[in-house]
Amino acid sequence: MEAANPSGDLSAEMEVDAFRRLFPLRFFDRHLVESIRPDGRPLGRARDTTLALGAVASADGSALAKIGSTTMLAAIKLEVMTPATESPDEGSIAIDFHMPPICSPMVRPGRPAEAAPVISKQLSDTILSSGVINLKELCLISGKAAWMAYLYPEERNNMNLKVDKLWNFMITIVDIYCLDADGALFDAALLSAIAAFSHLEIPVVSLDEDGRVVILSQDEGLKTSNEPVNAEKRKLTLSDIPFSLTCILYKNYILADPTAEEESVMETLITVVLDSSYQLVSLYKPGGSVLAYTSALQDCIALTRHRVQELKKILDEAMSEMEVD
Amino acid sequence: MVGLSLGEKHFIQGGIAQDLRSDARKRLTYRPIYVETGVIPQANGSAAVKMGATEVIASVKAELGKPTSLHPDKGKVAIFVDCSPTAAPAFEGRGGEELSAELSTSLQQCLLGGKSGAGAGIDLSSLSVVEGKICWDLYIDCLVVSTDGNLLDALGAAIKAALSNTGIPRVQVAAGATGDEQPEVDISDEEFLQFDTSGVPVIITLTQVGKHYIVDATAEEESQMSSAISVSVNRHGRICGMTKRGGAGLDPSVILDMISVAKFVSEQLIIKLDSEISAAEAREEE
Amino acid sequence: MSGKGGSAPHPTTYSPSPQNQKRPKSLIFKDNVDWVRPDGRGFQHCRPAFLRTGAVNAASGSAYAEFGNTKVIVSVFGPRESKKAQMYSDIGRLNCNVSYTTFATPVRGQGADHKEFSSVLHKALEGAIILESFPKTTVDVFALVLESGGSDLPVVISCASLALADAGIRMYDLVTSVSVSCLGKNLVIDPIFEEENCQDGSLIIACMPSRNEVTQLTITGEWSTPKIHEAMQLCLDACAKLGMVMRSCLKETASSQE
C-alpha cells in the first residue's frame, strides 16, 4: 500500500508513517508525481461503492450507502400535512443531515459538527431543484376520480371532509446519519437519500372516526369497515436522478472522491451534481486556495459523467436485488 | 469532594470493620431523622427532612391534566430534583445537573413502578378524576439544601412525608358533557382529600466499604465506598425498585444478601419515619 | 421512555398510526390466557444476536450489534487528551454518550442525547475498565441507536464493551447485559419494544461473566425476593451465553486480521 516504501520491513514502515504525519503535503506530492494515491487508486477513480436498501425497518424507506469507508444511513418517515397556501396541490420534503459523535473523532456530543448544516442545506437545494421527486405525487388520494369516489358513497359529515381534504398530503422527512466519516460526505449522503427515495413506499391509508389518517396493514385492509382511500401501496417515480462527485483541486491535479485525510491536507474542493441525463444540476466550489480554470471544471464534469454511469448501475442493481427478495 | 488523609481513611474503614463508626453509630443505624411538614404554604404538600447535616425539602403541587392514552384511568407523577449551590461548591453553575438528573431518575425508578403502572409506590389510579379525560398531575419538586451523604434516602423520606402532608382538592364534575368534549370541573377550595401514602416505599442505600455495608453513610464514608445499591422497600417487605450506584462489580450472592439486609432495615425505618411524620403533622396543627 | 419523544418537531404534521394500535395491547399478556410472544419466542429465549467489530473506521474501536430489530453502533475514541477544563487525574476518565436516531422509534423523535442511558452505560462499564492503564487521558464511548426494537440499553452496554475490546482498552472482563420484563406472573427475557411498553416491572443486569460480578443492576416495579432471585439467575445465565458469543466474535476478527 505504501508506494514510497521500497523495503517493506516494519521499521521502514514506521518511518513512512511518521513521514506521512509530519510532512503530509510532501508525502502526497511524492505519490501524485507517480499518478497514484496513497490507497493505490489512480487520481480519477472513485472508491468502491455499495448500496443496501431497506436497512431500517422502523422507517418507510431507507438505504445504507458506502463509498470506501464513508457510510451513510438515510431513512424516510412519512407524516401527514396540510399543504402550504401557495402550493395547495403539493406535498413537501424536509431533509436533515446529522453527524453523530460516533462518526468521527472531530465530533463531540453537545458540539455539533460545522459541516452538518452546510451539507444539509446543499442536499435539500440539490434534491428540490433537480425535480427528482414530483411533489404532486405526495398526495395521498391520487387522481380526482378516487377522491370523488370516496366523497359520495361514504356517510360522513362535512366537518370531517374538510379535515380529510386538508390532511391529504405527505411530508417526507429524510434523516441522513453519517455513521463513518471518511471524506466525500456530500456524495455519499446524496446517494443514500436518493436510494432511500427509491425504496420508499406510500402505504395504504384510511380515515378513522376522527378524520385522522391511519395506516392499514395488508391483511387488515380487507376486513375493516374503513375503506382504504388509496388503492395500493405505490412507489414514487424518480425522474432525472441527481448524482454527484466531489473532486480535490491541488496544483494541476484533480483527485476524485477524496478521503478524509486528503480533504484535510488539500483544501480546495469542487462538487459537481449531474442528473441521469447528464444535465448540470449544481456546481459547488466553496472558496479554497486553488483557483480553477474552466478547463479544470470541464475535467471535473467529465469525471462526474463517468461516475454517474457507475452510480446509475449500482442503484439499478440494488433496486433489482430488492425486488428479487 | 472530601479530602481525607491516609490516616483518616484507615480510621473510617477500621471503624466500620469493628461496627463502631466515627460518629459512634453501628453499621445499620441511621442518624436521627427530623421531619417538618408544611414548610411551603403555597404547595399542596411539603416537607423538610434532616438526617445529620443532610437536609432536603420536597414539595408536591397538584394540577389538573389529561391522562395518557396508554393509561386513561391513571394520573401522572413527575419527580424533579434540584441541587442548590448553597449545598456544595461543586453544585455551582451547571455542576449539580448531573447529580440532579441521576437522583431524579433513581427516585422515579424507586417510586413509580413499572411501565404498565403496576407496583407503583404512589397509587396512580387514585389520581383519576374522569377516566380518559381529566386526572391529577403531581409535580414533586425536591431541593437539596445541604449535603452530608445519603441524599437518596433523605429525598425518599421527604417525598413520603410531603405526600402524607398533601391534600388534593375535591373536584365536582359537571354532568352533561358527552363525547369528545372536555367536561367542566369545579375545584373545591375547602374540601381536601387526604392522599393515601401507606404504599409509598422507603429507600435504603447500602454502601459497601471494605467487606461490610453500612446504611446512611456520611459524605466522608461515601468517599470510601467501593459500590452502593439503593433498594426501595414497601410496608409489605416487597422490593419496589433498585439501582446500583456505579463502582466496582458485586457478586450476585452479595447483592441478594444486601437486599435481605435492606428489607430488615426498612421495617425499622418505616416505623421511625411514620412516627416522625405524625409528630410533625401534630406540631403543624397546633 | 423519557428523552426520546417529546413534542413533534413539525407541529403542523403527524405520523399516521397503524390502525391495530387502537386495540389495548396489554390484554394480550394477561395471566389467565395462554399467550405467545409477538415474535414467537419462548419466554426464556433471547433473540438471535448479530455482532461485528470494526464498524466505523474513523474510530479507535467500534462494534455493531443487532438483536432482532434493535440495531446499535458504538464507537470508542481514545485514550485521548482530556478536556482542558478538567483537573489532573492519575487514573483515566470514561465518558459515555448514548443518542437515538430520529427514525429509531415508530413516531419520529428528536434524535436527542439520552442522558439517563448515558449515565447507566457509564456505571455499567466503569467497574470493568482498568482506568489506571491510561492516566490523564479520556476514553470516549459513543453509542447511536439506529433502530429501537426493545432492550435497547442492554444491547448498548454489551456492544460498548465489545467496541472497547476492539479499541484495545484494557478491561478485567467483557461486560454483557440482559434484561427481563415481568408481565403478570411471567418473566420474559430480552423483551421487545411492545413487551417493554406494558411491562409490570423490569430487571436489567450488566455483569462480567468470567468474574461472576454484577457491575450494574436496575429493578423497577414491585418484586418479591424469590422472583428477583429467579430473574437474576435467568439474566446471569443469558449473560454468560452472550459473553461466549462476544468472545467468538472477537476471536473471528483477530484471526481474520492475521
Notes on the structure:
- The complex is a heterotrimer of chains A (325), B (286) and C (258).
- Chain A has 325 residues and is of the alpha+beta class.
- Chain A has a domain at 46-240: 2-Layer Sandwich (Ribosomal Protein S5, domain 2).
- Chain A is 34% helix and 24% strand.
- Chain A has 9 helices and 13 strands.
- In chain A, the strands form 4 sheets. Chain A has a 5-stranded mixed β-sheet. In chain A, strands 11-10-12-13 form a 4-stranded antiparallel β-sheet, with helices on both faces. A two-stranded antiparallel ribbon of chain A has the order 6-9.
- In chain A, strand 2 and strand 3 form a beta hairpin.
- In chain A, helix 1 (10-22) packs across helix 2 (24-33) and helix 3 (115-130) crosses helix 6 (185-199).
- With 286 residues, chain B is α+β, with helices and mostly antiparallel strands.
- Chain B has a single domain (6-285), classed as GHMP Kinase, N-terminal domain (Ribosomal Protein S5, domain 2), CATH 3.30.230.
- Chain B is built from 5 helices and 12 strands.
- Chain B has helices at residues 6-17, 97-111, 151-164, 219-222, 252-285; strands spanning 33-37, 45-51, 54-65, 76-83, 128-130, 134-146, 167-173, 185-194, 202-209, 212-215, 227-233, 239-247.
- In chain B, strands 1, 2, 3, 4, 5 and 6 form a 6-stranded mixed β-sheet that branches.
- The longest helix of chain B is centred in the last third of the chain and has 34 residues, at 252-285.
- The N and C termini of chain B lie far apart (42 Å).
- By secondary structure, chain C is an alpha+beta fold.
- Helices cover 25% and strands 29% of the residues of chain C.
- In chain C, the strands form 2 sheets. In chain C, strands 2-3-4-6-5 form a 5-stranded mixed β-sheet. Chain C has a 4-stranded antiparallel β-sheet with strand order 8-7-9-10, with helices on both faces.
- In chain C, a hairpin with a 4-residue loop joins strand 9 (201-208) and strand 10.
- In chain C, helix 1 packs across helix 2.
- Mean pLDDT of chain C is 85; it is low at 1-11 and 20-27.
- Chains A and C meet through strand 3, strand 4, strand 5 and strand 8 of A and strand 1, strand 4 and strand 6 of C.
- Strand 12 (239-247) of chain B pairs antiparallel with strand 10 of chain C, so a sheet runs across the interface.
